[in-house]
Design goal:
The complex is a heterodimer. Chain A is of the alpha+beta class. In chain A, about 20% of the residues lie in helices and about 25% in strands. Chain B contains nine helices and no strands. Chain B has helices spanning about 5-35, 40-65, 85-110, 115-135, 150-180, 185-225, 230-240, 240-270, 275-300. The chains are: A alpha+beta, B mainly alpha.
């Protein structure tokens, strides 16, 4: 049994196609306004004046696919007043909607916008790492759907040993807040967290 | 701003006003008893005490409006070990039940004065811890605009400022009622009212000063915070809602400053009750509106870090 399951994301392989997002939305039949996995586009750059007076540009853009990171310190779980959020032995963080009161406090606390409100049912929902598929030995829908194999999942320590321990790049928040179970291979143009080099180009989509 | 935020604005403002009123009422009653005896102190304070009850009930009911699934509301107390929201709900329940017990005892004069004083003191302490818990809910590292000592200080200023002015207005109404019923017996009560209003006005002026120290320091700190979410919050308060902020500050100054000074001066010179009363009502109304605007800005400034 895994100790802490985690997502892996390779920014160099991602083309921003959002197949992961769509597969997730399809499998869990999510309403408009609920997008458990989202793809953030971060871009920037400008004209640079060279020594000889000529101009070249240094524009860049890269994608970051992010869902619930099933954090090692899940702040949603800490602040939830009704103990509706729990962490399984394999690290998957789940919301029990039978216990949720729909106060949306977890929404304020999570820096990844993972808990999302279901307007129709009045309860919070979020990525559950497709625990049904994982329990059956399969993969989460997003991982299975990625055409460029930019996504993977597995035991956090194994993923870290294989890919390093980067868990934060712009536009993600600092990993300090929740210790996300996330391993990223940063894009070659990746900007550090809080960088002013670029900006989130699709805020309405994340 | 949606229904959710409005229910939180009403809950926090009304609950803090109720707690501040209770605590200040206790203090006033204590000193009034020492000076004029318990019977006169009760005559001045009891009706105001009973008026706090409906306020608390209103505040508690309004909180249900912000829940997506109110049927599960009783579960909200279960995570008191780590959630300030659970702690707040437990404290709010304790304050309401104990407060109701105390109000009933005081109304029917059950138990000796000392027993009632002890119960009242416990209720007041629970109320003050409740204000602290309400502020701690917003100490979220992911919301820099809220994650500040200013939230705690401001919640306490609101508690005492609205409490003082609400009690001032309630005492004026109570005195008007007493005088209408028994005109001859109102004299002692008028002296008590004038003394109390002077102290309440003084308190409002000091709290106004404290507000005017905290607000600019808070906004300045927010504006120079390196976290983009903090700067975005400062922009919501000062930029997008600059006019609202200005009106709030002016109303606060007029209510807790100008009119409180008038109340202070007129209470000393034993001016006509009608003038004094109008000013006490006006000061309360202006500060209440200003505090609601301030709380609106507080919720509007919610900008979370991350994506």
């Amino acid at each position: 049994m895994a100790k802490q399951l985690a997502f892996y994301f390779n920014a160099n392989a991602c083309t921003g196609c959002k197949a992961c997002q769509t597969a997730c939305k399809d499998k869990w039949d999510l309403n408009v306004g609920q997008t458990w996995r989202r793809v953030a586009e971060y871009s920037g750059g400008n004209w640079v004046v060279n020594a000889d007076g000529t101009y070249t540009q240094n524009i860049f853009a890269y994608y970051t696919s992010v869902a619930c990171n099933h954090c090692e310190s899940p702040t949603c779980l800490e602040v939830c007043p009704s103990k509706a959020i729990s962490k399984r032995d394999d690290g998957i963080v789940l919301i029990d909607d039978a216990a949720c009161i729909g106060c949306r406090y977890c929404e304020w606390a999570c820096p990844y916008a993972a808990p999302q409100f279901d307007e129709a049912r009045g309860v919070m929902t979020k990525c559950n790492m497709c625990y049904d598929a994982v329990d059956a030995g399969g993969k989460p829908a997003c991982v299975a759907a990625c055409p460029s194999r930019a996504l993977d999942f597995g035991e956090l320590e194994e993923l870290r040993a294989k890919y390093g321990d980067v868990a934060e790049i712009a536009p993600l928040p600092s990993a300090e807040y929740t210790q996300p179970s996330l391993v990223i291979t940063p894009h070659k143009s990746a900007a550090p967290v809080g960088s002013a080099a670029g900006e989130l180009a699709n805020p309405e989509e994340v | 701003m949606e229904l959710k935020e409005w229910s939180l604005i009403i809950f926090t403002i009304v609950m803090q006003m109720a707690i501040g009123s209770f605590v200040i009422l206790g203090g006033v009653h204590y000193f009034a008893t020492r000076r004029n005896g318990m019977a006169e102190a009760d005559r001045m304070a009891d009706r105001s005490l009973l008026a706090i009850g409906p306020l608390v009930v209103l505040a508690l009911l309004v909180t249900l409006l912000h829940l997506g699934n109110p049927l599960n509301a009783p579960r909200a107390i279960s995570n008191f070990g780590s959630s300030w929201l659970s702690r707040e709900i437990i404290l709010a329940g304790t304050f309401s039940v104990l407060g109701a017990v105390f109000a009933f005892m005081q109304w029917r004069k059950i138990g000796s004065m000392n027993v009632r004083r002890v119960v009242g003191l416990v209720v007041a302490l629970v109320g003050l811890v409740l204000v602290y818990a309400m502020a701690m809910i917003y100490q979220l590292p992911t919301v820099p605009a809220w994650n500040s000592p200013a939230t705690v200080i401001t919640f306490f200023i609101t508690t005492f400022l609205l409490g003082a002015l609400a009690i001032g207005a309630a005492f004026v109404a109570n005195f008007t009622y007493l005088r209408g019923k028994k005109p001859d017996k109102a004299n002692v009560q008028y002296t008590m009212l004038a003394t109390t209003l002077r102290w309440l006005a003084l308190m409002a002026i000091v709290l106004l000063g404290l507000h005017f120290v905290v607000i600019p320091l808070y906004l300045a700190t927010l504006a120079i915070n390196p976290e983009p979410a903090a700067v975005a919050s400062a922009n919501v308060i000062v930029g997008q809602n600059g006019l609202l902020l200005a009106v709030r500050l002016v109303l606060l100054f007029l209510g807790a400053g100008v009119f409180a000074v008038f109340v202070y001066k007129n209470a000393a010179s034993e001016a006509k009750l009608r003038v004094l009363g109008s000013m006490a009502y006006l000061a309360f109304a202006l500060v209440l509106i200003s505090e609601i605007m301030g709380r609106y800005l507080f919720y509007a400034s919610m900008v979370r870090v991350g994506i």
